[in-house]
From TrEMBL:
SMART domains: HTH_ARAC. Pfam families: HTH_18 (PF12833). Keywords: DNA-binding, Transcription, Transcription regulation. This is AraC-type DNA-binding protein. Residues 200-309 form the HTH araC/xylS-type domain. It comes from Flavobacterium terrigena. One of its GO terms (molecular function) is DNA-binding transcription factor activity. InterPro entries: Homeodomain-like_sf, HTH_AraC.
Amino acid sequence: MTTISINEFYKEIFDDKCQLTELFLNEQNNIDIGHFNVFNIAEMSSACKSKPVMPYNRRTYYKISLINGHNRVEYADKEIEVKQRGILFASPKIPYRYVPQNDEQSGFFCVFTADFMDKSKTALNIDSLPIFNAKGDFVYQLSEEQFREIEQIFLKMNNEIQSDYVYKYDLLRNYVTELIHAGQKLKPIDGIHQTHNAASRISSLFIELLERQFPIESPSQSLQLRTAKEYAENLRVHVNHLNKVLKEATGKTTTEIIASRITQEAKILLRQTDWNVSEIAISLGFDEVAHFSNFFKKQTQLSPLHFRE
């Protein structure tokens, strides 16, 4: 699992030779407004050959998708089936995969970055909203009436982004806010738990998430995730479930695996850098040198200084 930027998003969904790719990147990446774009799925498919399956990645942008077609959304230990009409609210916090189940796909989606919404004088703190909460649900079934109502918002977006109205991005932020509030009134679709596949997926995602914390390349860099609970929250599963899955797959608990990887990185830093022990401790997420020294000695039977010598 990799982290996909907004620029990489265009290259991910379009052919390299598609002229729309450069057009979108050149016109929409504006440091003064952040990034926003909206797509008509049917028109996009005819303009460029899009990839049939979205890879299971974490993204650095937000995405709201109005779905018309049979699809499956996979994340954490859940698989959500959208049988006909639905809407998906994706945030950078949640790695997921979107898998079309047939060729009859239409609808709209918009992508935007946090700084796009931050430009509004009445900006929503989108990360604090239930619909973008890492612990919440983000896929919703729609009736035909609900679909048509939300479709009208996307149609207004699609028309506005092509206009030369000087304040169009302010208006587009309002439309995004309208979509968010419409979504928060909906009831999420219940997930279909797939025990074997989900367990394998969670185990794999955990290891990839852990490895993304490394290598530590400067004393100013610091681990973002340190505890089993923090990893579980990022993977949208209960910490007990994560422990169970990893214990069955590796014979070790989440905490043991994390400690082992931190120890491995500590050894590398002690051997290959001239950073002092305090700098290494802080970069590995320890508030006190003594805490790091005690941790390292418990793992290796040596103090950091003795190991380095």
